[in-house]
Amino acid sequence: MKTKQQFIQTMDGARIAYDVSGSGPALMLLHGAGKERADWYKLGYVERLQQKYSVIAVDLRGSGKSSILTNIEDYAIEKIVADLNAVADACQVSQFAVWGYSLGGTIARYLGAWSNRAAAVAMIGVPFGPAVDKSFNQFIDAFLLKWGSQADVYRAGELSAEKRPSVIKGRIPVWTACFQAMRGWPDISPNQMQCPVLLLAGSKNKSVLEWIKTNPDALNASRVKVEIVAGLTHPQEFSQVERVFPPVYSFLRNVYGI
User: According to the model, what pLDDT value does residue 60 have?
Assistant: First the structure.
């Protein structure tokens, strides 16, 4: 059963929501863009994991019950990594594994590369290299073209009281800021990872498969294990629990020996 929602307050004043369930080695779950920590519960991930792990489910800044932040500088990757380390501190764990999907997988790379606190990283549906690849960059351009002006008006406090709730419900100012910030996040390569890594992708995730195909030497010289799940698209890398859970769970069991 999910424990009571808790919060930490960051150095820049943000409140980050999280909860902990189960017992055993610590495992932090990081959701994708447009999702929140509750989605790990809805799809049954936490129910399965909490039998063996202390599961720390986090709402990333701007998402779920965490603070809604709307400036580009709010989403510096250094601040996000600091958020997650602060959550681990509050949970009194010195080391923890990380399971991140999509945006959460991209963030997990930095925890694995920059901190010896990450015991293992499972990054789902994202490659190494830049945080924003060519296809994602094109998506961001289209997103900003459609929503950027509305987000600017919201940040300036010039949006009418009637329209503000619908704009923030869709987190439009959050994602316009976050996506632009991601363009400045540094590249991460496999050889930077300080812990065992599982890179899992569906066979229909073209951007990840192309990166794997063109970087065999970097992968072979690293601690990264690649798992391709036949037939899955990027959204299905999260929604198809029966296909995704077994290889990630096996990876974590091998790391922890349980």
Answer: 98
Residue 91 has pLDDT above 90, yes or no: yes
* DSSP states of 183-195: TTSPPB-GGG--S
Structure tokens at 256: 């922890």
Residues found in the chain = 258
Banded model confidence at residue 1, pLDDT cuts 50, 70, 90: very low
State which amino acid sits at residue 144: L
Nearest to 125 by CA among 242, 257, 226: 226
Q: Does any domain span residue 182? A: no
Q: Which residues pair with 188 in a beta bridge?
A: 129
Quote the number of domains for the chain.
1
Domain-located, residue 163: no
Nearest CA-CA partner of 222 in 109, 124, 134, 131:
109
Range of the domain at 90: 6-130+187-256
Residue 227 placed within a domain? yes
Q: Which two tokens stand for residue 125?
A: 């549906």
The whole-model pTM stands at 0.95
Q: In this structure, is residue 152 part of a structural domain?
A: no
Q: What is the CATH number of the domain that holds 98?
A: 3.40.50.1820
Residue pair 26/88 in contact (Cβ under 8 Å)? The answer is yes
**In angstroms, rounded to a whole number, what is the distance separating the alpha carbons of residues 196 and 119?**
7
Q: Distance between CA atoms of 239 and 219, rounded to whole angstroms?
A: 27
